[in-house]
Design a protein that fits this description.
28 helices; Rossmann fold; 6 domains; Isoleucyl-tRNA Synthetase, domain 2; alpha/beta; 4-stranded antiparallel β-sheet
């Protein structure tokens, strides 16, 4: 039984539960089937489904369902990320509402509170993934802070440390004063802003004039330990080696020469603030300059800032500018466009900050990761992203992996408080261990203190492809599914995550983590703008699925997913694909109604079938080939487009219309052959569509009782070309018939003939084409409302006729008996009506008061109507001109 109308809300939850209960998504251990594995990019536990997630999930699910149906032992491994900074921020905001903070609770109490929050809310994103139809193996769900992954993280840290690839040292890092933690370069978002360039005079200590430097951050001059110029800059040949007096504080600092200085920036002389600028840090190391920290982790000025101690950094900037003006040291200011770094989580302006942190020495790891892509062990698709990958990897910096927060993987390093013997002092009391030590291994002291910092969230995520499969144990899952098959992700985490997974996989598994990396496009709004809450143009995928159903939304995303091209998302397209699903639903109802009446016979040889049946089977074979090939090449839009074209324009528009003649007018044997073909074609079509729209295909597959011997469409073999015959002659002959029909229809359209009006047709063509047309005359007459059709090579164009030319034929429709004058009169009245309405719209849109005062939406609606009426008027004018021409040419 199939309901009259398609209601996704009634079927989606029911079928998802059916799949879960049947265990259809579970991967098998010890299977002889070839493995196919995808590890899901783990969403944050703080997150809710956004449209980027929806695209990610849809494309991965299409691949997994396709491969599962194709006979692979599929594992789509799900999980979530603990999202250190994000999750800690969420829980801290909750505490603030209660008048508490994390320090009030203490570390253990706060961590307990975060775990409680995770248990309450952390599963919301998983529910949303399931609502999208994600066919993950939920029995293998992982969390980046679960015990197994935590063990893997500690193992990797210790091994890298022992191999000299993890170290601790002072370095300029990106510091968020709001989150109180270091950020990697990738966690800093840069935003173009209009700032100021301040020109400040530094007087020479000997009283002989001054040198002017330009800076965008005047508050940091308090930490200056030199002024630098380029050694090739002729303007400053005589000042290198001199001493200048630091404004306000009066400290004496040297003028040095360094090739890093850009002579074209500002005055060509720059201030050197080693503790608060990464480039100045490197200059200071080359010239052995001191480091002066004038700011603390809160973004407030320290004792070293002298009279500005305790002030906020931006308050200090204002005060210093005033003081420089008063001392006559601010020469000028000018506008300066610059990129300001912000924390990716809280959007606070980050501060370059000298701090002791833990780092991964990535150069040796990056070199191997570059080779893996260059030699083809990993494919990046589209290949254009390879250049971005190489550029970043070849210029990579050491990775700062420590974070000054509490939620996350705590760094497995302990410090001996006693340093009781030479060995312990030589090691500086540093103990790096997978297991928590009870005593110092060097001196035996029990007074140990663990490092307070946690690891960057991306550190544990970098191990995801092998840690989730059981590493460091040699598990059956690890042996079966590593390397994984493909990673599907957005380009925004190519460096955050993808590159790091490649580095870690090669280091610890001695193999790549995946064979292919498919980078999908960014989804923008209809105008091509990036989606953001501030613009109000964010599309809620859950709202899309509620209104149109999950299948329509999924098919839309797949149809949009062209390689290398950003997506301009339009809700109208989702609505259009909802109509497409209604079309599929109605085909199923058509089958059910006619099946009850005619029954189904099987075993018909293809050559005994009528032309439409042989044609649709042959076309289906091509569609099977095209769909499989497109999915192999990650061309999701081409696969979706191929299926849409076949179902809507070939199966429905042509085949179903043609076979109605045989169903309602043929003998029982012929009706049975048609129904057997239709069922065969539609069952395969549902299977082809299943990875894209799983719910409706499962519903119809069961509703039409196609589930004999197989309990779910999701495990039915994915169609292969051999399931369909192929008749090249049928394709050629059908094209001939379609050409004749479209030619006649085009004449009817040009003449604007009423659908009920039967016409006469003459077709001039060769004998072979004429034979095909005569053999299929009933279809031509039925689909063109032709009273009679005359075909032959000697046909002459009637004196009064309209003409259409198609390959190998000329088509004539005699005008005798057609009342062209009446049609001209009718269309003229319609034209007058349209022109009147068009004129009203034209006056309205030329009224400046209307444009200024009416809501923007109303104005845009009127502009749209204006364009529509203009286009309709042009179409009718063109048709009238043609009809009048015909009338004149046929007048006595």
């Amino acid at each position: 039984m199939i309901d009259k109308g398609y209601d996704p809300g009634k079927i989606e939850g029911r079928w998802y539960d059916y799949w879960l209960e049947g265990g259809y998504f579970r991967a098998e251990t010890g299977s002889e089937r070839p493995p196919y594995c995808i590890v899901i990019p783990p969403p944050n536990i703080t997150g809710s489904l956004h449209i980027g997630h929806a695209l990610d999930v849809t494309l991965q699910d299409i691949l997994i369902r396709w491969k599962r149906m194709s006979g692979f032992n599929t594992l789509w491994l799900p999980g979530t990320d603990h999202a250190g900074i994000a999750t800690q921020n969420v829980v801290e905001r909750e505490l603030q509402k209660e008048g508490l903070d994390r320090h009030t609770l203490g570390r253990e109490g706060f961590i307990k509170r975060v775990w409680e929050w995770k248990e309450r809310y952390g599963g919301e994103i998983i529910k949303q993934l399931k609502s999208m139809g994600a066919s993950c193996d939920w029995s293998r769900e992982r969390f980046t802070l679960d015990e197994g992954l935590s063990r893997a993280v500690r193992e990797v840290f210790v091994r890298l440390y022992n191999d000299g690839l993890i170290y601790r040292g002072d370095y300029i890092i990106n510091w968020c004063p709001r989150c109180h933690t270091a950020l990697s370069d990738l966690e800093v978002e840069h935003e173009e802003r209009e700032g100021r360039l301040y020109y400040i005079r530094y007087r020479f200590a000997d009283g002989g004039g001054h040198i002017t430097v330009a800076t965008t951050r005047p508050e940091t001059l308090l930490g200056d330990t030199a002024v630098a110029v380029n050694p090739e800059d002729e303007r400053y040949k005589g000042v290198v080696g001199k001493t200048v007096v630091l404004p306000i504080l009066g400290r004496h600092i040297p003028v040095i020469a360094d090739a890093y200085v850009d002579s074209s920036f500002g005055t060509g002389a720059v201030k050197v603030t080693p503790a608060h600028d990464p480039n100045d840090f490197e200059i200071a190391r080359r010239h052995d300059l001191p480091f002066v920290k004038i700011m603390d982790g809160e973004g407030r000025m320290t004792d070293e800032a002298g009279p500005y101690k305790g002030q906020d950094r931006f308050e200090c900037r204002s005060r210093i500018i005033d003081d420089l003006k008063e001392d006559g040291l601010l020469e000028k200011t000018e506008p300066h466009r610059m990129a300001i770094g912000h924390c990716y989580r809280c959007k606070t302006i980050v501060e370059p900050y000298l701090s002791e942190q833990w780092f991964v020495r990535v150069r040796p790891l990056a070199d191997e990761a570059i080779k893996a892509v260059r030699d083809g062990r990993i494919r990046i698709i589209p290949s254009g992203w390879e250049n971005s990958y190489f550029d970043w990897m070849e210029n990579i910096k050491d990775w700062c992996i420590s974070r000054q927060i509490w939620w996350g993987h705590r760094i497995p390093v302990w410090y001996c408080e006693d340093l009781q013997n030479e060995e312990c002092r030589g090691k500086k009391g540093v103990i790096v261990s997978v297991e928590t030590p009870n005593r110092c291994p060097y001196c035996g002291s029990a007074r140990l203190r663990q490092d307070d910092d946690v690891l960057d969230t991306w550190f544990s995520s970098a191990l995801w492809p092998f840690s989730t499969l059981g590493w460091p144990d040699e598990t059956e899952d690890l042996r079966t599914f590593y390397p994984t098959s493909v990673l599907v992700t957005g380009f925004d985490i190519l460096f955050f995550w993808v590159a790091r997974m490649i580095m870690m996989g090669l280091r610890f598994m001695n193999d790549v983590p995946f064979r292919d990396v498919y980078i999908h496009a960014l989804i923008r709004d209809e105008e091509g703008q990036k989606m953001s809450k501030s613009k109000g143009n964010v599309v809620d995928p859950l709202e899309m699925t509620r209104v149109y159903g999950t299948d329509a939304f999924r098919f839309t995303l797949a149809a949009y997913a062209a390689q290398g091209r950003d997506i301009r998302f339009s809700e109208k397209r989702v609505e259009g694909y909802r109509h497409f699903i209604n079309k599929i639903w109605n085909v199923a109802r058509f089958i059910l109604m006619n099946q009850d009446r005619t029954g189904v016979s099987k075993g018909h040889e293809m050559r005994s079938l009528s032309l439409p049946n042989r044609w649709i089977i042959s076309r289906l074979r091509s569609v099977i080939e095209e769909t499989n090939r497109a999915l192999e090449e990650y061309r999701f839009n081409e696969a979706a487009g191929c299926l849409y074209q076949f179902v809507w324009h070939e199966l429905c528009d042509w085949y179903l219309e043609m076979i109605k003649l045989e169903l309602y007018g043929g003998d029982e044997e012929r009706r049975g052959a048609v129904m057997a073909t239709l069922n065969h074609v539609f069952e395969i079509t549902l299977c082809l569509l299943h990875p894209f729209m799983p719910f409706v295909t499962e519903e119809l597959w069961h509703g039409l009782s196609y589930n004999t011997g197989v309990s779910s469409i999701c495990i039915r073999r994915y169609p292969v070309p051999d399931e369909c015959g192929y008749d090249e002659g049928a394709l050629r002959d059908m094209q001939t018939v379609m050409d004749a029909i479209t030619g006649i229809r085009s004449i009817r359209g040009e003449l604007n003939l009423q659908p009920s009006l039967e016409i006469g047709v003459k077709i001039k063509t060769d004998d072979a084409t004429g034979r095909v047309l005569n053999e299929n005359m009933m279809y031509i007459k039925r689909l063109t409302r032709a009273r009679d059709v005359e075909i032959g090579r000697d046909i002459e164009a009637p004196e009064d006729s309209a003409t259409a030319v198609r390959p190998s034929m000329e088509i004539f429709v005699p005008l005798e008996g057609l009342d062209i004058g009446a049609e001209i009169e009718r269309m003229t009245k319609e034209l007058e009506r349209l022109r009147e309405r068009f004129s009203l719209l034209e006056r309205k849109l030329s009224n400046e008061d209307f444009i200024r005062k009416a809501p923007e939406r109303v104005v845009e609606e009127n502009r749209l109507k204006y364009r529509e009426f203009k286009e309709k008027i042009k179409i009718i004018e063109d048709k009238l001109e043609r009809l009048r021409g015909l009338q004149r040419s046929h007048s006595p």
